[in-house]
Amino acid sequence: MVTQQAGTAKIAIEPGSVQETLIIPLYGRKLCAEVFPRLYNDTSAAELCARLDYDFSGLDRQAKSTFWRFGALEAAMRQLDMEWEIRDYLAAHPQAAVVNMGCGLDQTPRRCDNGTCLMYNVDMPNIIDARAELLPEVAREHNIACDLNDARWMDEVDGSGGAIFFAAGVFHYFTFAQAQALVSGLAERFGGCRIVFDTIGKLGRRLMRSTFKSFGMENYDECLCVEDVSELRDWVPGARVTSRGYMLGYYPMDDPAVTGLHRFLARLCDRRVKMQIVRIDTVG
Ligand SMILES: C[S@@+](CC[C@H](N)C(=O)[O-])C[C@H]1O[C@@H](n2cnc3c(N)ncnc32)[C@H](O)[C@@H]1O
Predict the structure, then answer these.
(1) How many domains is the chain partitioned into structurally?
(2) Distance 172 CA to ligand 1 centre (A)
(3) Which end is more exposed in the chain, N or C (fewer Cβ atoms within 10 Å of the end residue's Cβ)?
(4) Using an 8 Å Cβ cutoff, are 216 and 164 in contact?
């Protein structure tokens, strides 16, 4: 849960809620900008962390460990992958809607703003309230407070110039059926849209068990996991479904602070944990 503390400018995020999951990628991006500045130099996550009333001390203590630094790389690489897909889509559809599904406090659409696209951020109402305080809407940007599983949010998106929908770190919390319903609903309404999201395989889901449990999710066995992208081919008739490695599928992680162990883990994540960026290009 997110609440604003009376009399302070800080926003409180209550531990143990699914919404708290936004802290991990946000902190990861902050850490990545500090440790791997050549790879990722966005300092906005650090500015946002400073405005949250959240106990970061546990994360700060672990920040020097190889594994946490690798976690930071994961958060940043995912954002860079999403940016690649958005820029690629905008090159052909400069007035498209760029829709950040389960946005948390992420600002990827703004980083890709070409001056003509529309930007939408969708998340649960308490996250959108916090967002409105911390990141007031800019020109052509709209926040939508809604559960993604309630298709009414789609009514607010103007996809007349095309649309790219992306979800970073969100579909792990959906069941296979929920993810399928969301994707096929988008494809039905927004012909020619692109839908991009990250997935993990069975091993990845097992490794994430304790994370799921800590957010009170007992049904994690039903959560979406994808071993091979061909499993999604019948989600949207006629669509082109492809995937790339999450860690190394777009960029070579070029930074002197990236160690041999980080590279080994990156290959392991892409190949064994089946961390992928899935892209679905629907027919127009
Ligand atoms: C791991 S965080 C990722 C946040 C952001 N995409 C990022 O990369 O920083 C997951 C986000 O998805 C949101 N979320 C999860 N389930 C949702 C749902 N059913 N409807 C709307 N938002 C949801 C959470 O509130 C949270 O902000």
Answers:
(1) 1
(2) 10
(3) C
(4) no
